[in-house]
Amino acid sequence: MELEEKCVKSERIYKGKILNLRRDIVKLPDGREASREVVEHSGAVGVVPLTGEGQVYLVRQYRYPIGKVTLEIPAGKLEEGEDPLDCARRELKEEVGIEASRWEPLLTFYTTPGFSNEVMHLFLATELSKKEAQPDQDEFLQIVSLPLEEALEKARTGEIMDAKTILSLLLVRYKFTGRAYPLLGEKP
User: Fold this and answer.
1) Where are the domains of the chain?
2) What tens digit of pLDDT does each residue of 77-91 get?
3) Of 61, 152, 184, 186, which one's alpha carbon is 20 to 30 angstroms from that of 135?
4) d(CA 74, CA 71)
């Protein structure tokens, strides 16, 4: 059975600084029509800055949509046509004041393909050197340094609830241990 839906009509609902919203009428595989709301996003990056001692740098910041302070990896939005690695370098320096000599792609994935076209690129940054942070004028961040295993424990207990951060930390742990998480009964 064919699964693809074909766009019949598209209407821009909102054009913003961070995202756009459109409503499409699509033809379903069985010939019926349905409405789809699509959030258009230019894409984003996330960076796990990892020291030689196994410490990760995270940022604590207030996230207005959820009304809470979160603990996350440094991350940011891609500018139009920007290379993801260039964006990752920029965001790491702006948010945490760190430059890295070694960069490794971890994963590229769709954040929420049910309603958005946003693609996120995750990177591991190592061989770090401290510089001065230069956050955007509307960014208020606290820099936190934790052992990787402690950050993973915060994810396990729900203190870290940000999906890109949880996924990134698990990918880094998997890279170095061959397992994303400790086996049942094993200490982290």
Assistant:
1) 6-41, 44-177
2) 999 999 999 999 999
3) 152
4) 9
Sign of the four-CA dihedral 121, 126, 127, 130: positive
Helical packing angle, 163-177 and 148-156, nearest 10°? 130
Is the pTM higher than 0.85? Answer: yes
Looking at 3.40.630.10, 3.90.79.10, 3.30.479.20, 2.40.50.100, the CATH number of the domain 44-177 comes to 3.90.79.10
Measure the CA–CA gap between 150 and 169, rounded to whole angstroms.
Answer: 10
The type of residue at 3 is L
CA nearest neighbour of 57 among 181, 177, 143: 143
Asked if residues 74 and 47 have their Cβ atoms less than 8 Å apart, the reply is yes
Write the DSSP string, 109-136.
EES-TTTB--EEEEEEEEEEEE------
Distance CA 70, CA 89 (A): 22
* Residues near 74 by beta carbon (within 8 Å), at least 6 away in sequence: 46, 47, 49, 57, 58, 59, 91, 92, 95, 96
Structure confidence by residue, pLDDT tens digits, 8-28: 999 999 999 999 999 999 999
Residue pLDDT, tens place only, 140-166: 899 999 999 999 999 999 999 999 999
